[in-house]
Amino acid sequence: MASLVPLKEKKLMQVKLGELPNWILMRDFTPSGIVGAFQRGYDRYYNKYINVRKGSISGINMVLAAYVVFSYCISYKELKHERRRKYH
What residues form the membrane-spanning segments (predicted)? Predict the structure, then answer.
């Protein structure tokens, strides 16, 4: 059965693989659109992991793990040259 929801209003997980290029082109890539996307993402993360009644440290741990992975990826070029090598 055909979808009754317009392509622009679909979420990423609802988009079929063939519709993906058209869906990406319909997104708002203006500076205000990008800022709005980051704000929605932050609000969703904050309400799901931080702003809860019985909170735990898992929400903060995810941010720290993402920071560690990101900083490793940034400094990989320098770390690659510091590997121990055999001196023949």
Answer: 56-76
